[in-house]
Structures are given as C-alpha cells and as structure tokens.
Design a protein that fits this description.
This protein folds into three domains: 91 residues, 3-Layer(aba) Sandwich (Rossmann fold); 195 residues, 3-Layer(aba) Sandwich (UDP-N-acetylmuramoyl-L-alanine:D-glutamate ligase); 131 residues, Alpha-Beta Complex (Protein-Tyrosine Phosphatase, Chain A), CATH 3.90.190.20. Helix content is 33%, strand content 20%. α6 packs across α11.
C-alpha cells in the first residue's frame, strides 16, 4: 500500500494554520504544503532556534509568525482558516489557538493530519511507560517477518515525515502520547496497543481520569475489524475491537510467560533468555510487540529470530559503564514514578539513586516504601529535590544543585558490587531541553569520572 500524500486533494487550496514550530509543527506544515495547502505557522517563541527554523521554511513557501506578532495574527478579524493543526506540546486553551477556533476553524493535531493522508494500516502504541521500547520491538519483529515498516510518532520521527516521504509501507508503527490523542478525529489504528497507565502529566490533566480518558481515545474509532492488544487484567469495556491479551502472570491471557518462555495459546514463541532485554517490564513489552505481529499475521518464528539481536533504546535502563565494580545505569527516560519503580526493581545489590527534576504535579511519597527497601542512598536534583527529600525522609538523602555534583557524589557513595541508577522519575524541562539531553549529560559525566583501582 502506498503512503504518498502529494496526490491527495484533501487539503489542496485550503488555508491552514499550524501552531508550534517544533518537530511536529514543522513536519505538519511541510506535509500540508506538499499536499497543496496554503500554510501559515505561528510560534509564540522568538528564540534564535525558532527564528532559524522560520527563515528556512519561509524559503519553502510557508508564511511564519513568531513572538508577539502571533496573537495579532490570530486576532485579525479579516483572517480565517479552513484548518488549524496543533502541536502536541501546546494546549487548546492557549489564547492564539482559542481565538482561531472561536471563529469556527476545525482543530486537529499532527497525528490526525498524517493519518488522513496515510495510505497504509497503522499500529498505534500508547501507555505511560514502555511505548518507545515496544514500538521499536514491534518494528524490529515486523521487519524481520518481511513487512515494509518503520517506527514513527512520539518516538522521534513524526508520522507526518514518514507520510511525506512518499515511500511505500505495508504498515506504520506509531508511538502515540496522550497529548497527540487529544486532537484526533478519524484516527483509527488497525492495531491499538494499551501497555499500562500510572500517574503522569498531572500538570496538564486535572486528574487521573482525564489522563486516562485521553489515552483511551486510541480505541475510539476502532471497529470489530480492528484489534486491541492489552494486559489481561485491564477492564476496558468500551473497546469495540477484537482483543489479544497478554500477561506474564495470568495463564488465561492469550500471550503468557510460561517457565521463562513467551507463549501464544500454549504454543512457544520466544524464550526470554534468547533476548538482551532485562527487567519484568520488558517482558510485557515483548509480549505486546509479539501481539502486534500476531494481529497482522506475521510469522512468529521470523519475529523471534529478528528480536534476538535487538538492543534496548538508549536512556532506558541503559548500562553506561562499569568501573570499580560499580554499574552506572542511565534511565533518563523515566519521567514518572512507575518508570522509576520498574528501574529500581530491575537492580540488585546496593543502589545509589539519582532522582528529581521538573514539578509535574504529583508526589513522590507513593514510591517511598520501595525506595526505603531498595535504595541505600538517594541524591536529589531539580525543582522537586526538597519535596522528594521530605517524602523520602526515612531514606538517606542528599540534595545536589546540579547533575554534575550528583554524579560526583554518587561516585563517592557507590560501593563495589552496587549500582548507580539515574532514574529521575519526572520530566527534565527545569534543567534540560528534554530527557535525551539529560541522559547524554549523565553519560558524559560518568565517562569523565577518573578510573578507580
């Protein structure tokens, strides 16, 4: 099946406005332009990086407004648009967005835009944790089984970029976030994967119920011809699609872990010891990814063969170095408590934990019993450092003003046979551009440490 959008007339001649000049907004603007639309992009920032992007796409034929002029453009009574596209990091209530939609302009997100121009089936994967790993696992397995596919979406490369490439795909494997799902209309994945749900983004959502509702939209447009892959213990009564369930502990699940071997309806699929993945959370990720292949009719033996050489993504329980008998593990992608909990549980022996970052509106108290049991010393950084120290008052803790100081202190506190785990448990935006920059900084600091005898 072909995913070439240029031949589509869906947006040809339409006047479209895109909010945000990050990767998603940039990709959406270019996709609309290639589809024959007249495109305006607005970004309230006037930073040098935004101005540089603006200069580039102006040369491509896209009108760009930045900084203070954005609201003036949105307020202009004589300007109307056929469509508004919202980047996932921007809320619908933002004044310029609200002004445009108040004139009756329909609003969608970059994910929805790409889907409307995508000519192939979609596997969509969501969950609080494990999305990136599962997306990469599913892509690796499907490629191994001979399907033309690629990972995209929230994983890094946007779906719009893949659609705009004009290449031919059998299926696209798309990591989707709650922010992206807020602005869907027709988005209907052939296979929708629900991994898990735990507190996150409570600085954006008033409660867990709103966060859950946003995630559940992944199933909204599915029918009985589609497939949902979900943990066997999940109660999702509104799902209309056929279900494939997975569980490492429930023998009644379709995909089950039996004596260290992942099985499907009792038939062996993949021995865990043949993979390079560690931790119970990755067992569930493997099961969900195998479920994607099963749903699409891929050969299980070819999928298993493909996954044997797979390495987990960077910044997620990634072993950076082992020096002086101490393992240094980078888990910068842990931006919530559930991810931190899984990382802590994957470590044996004495544990020094570096945690903390942006205040996302949740407490660290729920994880305190596990921290008290498993962590010998905690080093806290970022906006939440004092609050975490109060929540973890029964665990030896120290506050550091920078990641550099935290790594240096961890080197002193760690003992042979132990682990230093960098698992922040929250976002990076108080100190870093994103979790990738944070993880790369941790890597550099660790590799600069002096060798120990």
């Amino acid at each position: 099946m072909n995913s070439t959008p240029i031949s589509s007339d869906l947006y040809r001649g339409k006047k479209c406005i895109v909010f945000g000049l990050g990767r998603s907004g940039l990709a959406a603007a270019r996709l609309l332009l290639r589809s024959g639309a007249r495109v305006t992009v607005c970004d309230s920032s006037s930073s040098p990086a935004i101005q540089e992007k603006a200069a580039i796409i102006r040369k491509e034929g896209i009108l760009v407004h930045t900084g203070e002029e954005v609201e003036r453009v949105a307020l202009a009574a004589d300007i109307s648009y056929d469509l508004a596209v919202l980047s996932p990091g921007i809320e619908e209530t933002t004044p310029p967005v609200a002004l445009v939609t108040s004139k009756g302009t329909p609003l969608i997100g970059e994910l929805e835009l790409a889907f409307t121009l995508c000519g192939c089936p979609v596997v969509a994967i969501t969950g609080t944790n494990g999305k990136t790993t599962t997306t990469e696992l599913a892509t690796c397995m499907l490629q191994g089984a001979g399907l033309r596919t690629v990972s995209c979406g929230n994983i890094g490369t946007t779906m719009s970029e893949m659609v705009a490439s004009g290449k031919t795909w059998d299926v696209l494997v798309v990591e989707v976030s709650s922010f992206q799902l807020e602005t869907i209309r027709s988005f209907r994945p052939k296979v929708a994967v629900w991994l898990n749900l735990s507190p996150n983004h409570l600085d954006r959502y008033p409660s867990m119920s709103e966060y859950r509702a946003a995630k559940l939209r992944i199933f909204e447009n599915q029918t009985g011809e589609d497939i949902a892959i979900l943990p066997s213990q999940e109660d999702l009564p509104g799902v209309k699609s056929r279900k494939i369930t997975f569980s490492p502990t429930d023998p009644g699940a379709d995909i089950f872990l039996d004596g260290g071997v992942i099985t499907y309806h009792g038939k062996a699929l993949l021995p865990l010891q043949e993979t390079r993945l560690r931790g119970a959370h990755n067992t569930s990720n493997l099961m969900a990814a195998l479920g994607c292949g099963i749903a699409l009719g891929a050969d299980p033996e070819l999928m298993a063969k493909a996954i044997r050489d797979y390495l987990p993504p960077v910044h997620r329980c990634e072993l950076i170095s082992e020096r002086g008998g101490v393992q240094w593990v980078n888990d910068s992608k842990a931006t919530n408590l559930d991810a931190m909990e899984k990382a802590i549980c994957s470590v044996s022996g004495p544990l020094v934990l570096i945690a903390g970052g942006k205040d996302k509106g949740f407490e660290f108290a729920p994880i305190e019993p596990l921290v008290r049991e498993r962590v010998s010393f905690a080093i806290l950084i970022g906006e939440m450092k004092e609050r975490i120290a109060r929540d973890w008052s029964l665990t030896p803790c120290c506050i550091s003003e920078s990641l550099e100081d935290a790594v240096a202190l961890a080197a002193v506190k760690a003992t042979p046979g132990g682990t230093v785990l960098f698992s922040p448990g929250t976002s990076s935006f108080d100190m870093f551009r994103d979790y990738i920059e944070r993880g790369e900084m941790f890597r550099r600091l660790v590799l600069r440490l002096p060798e120990q005898d």
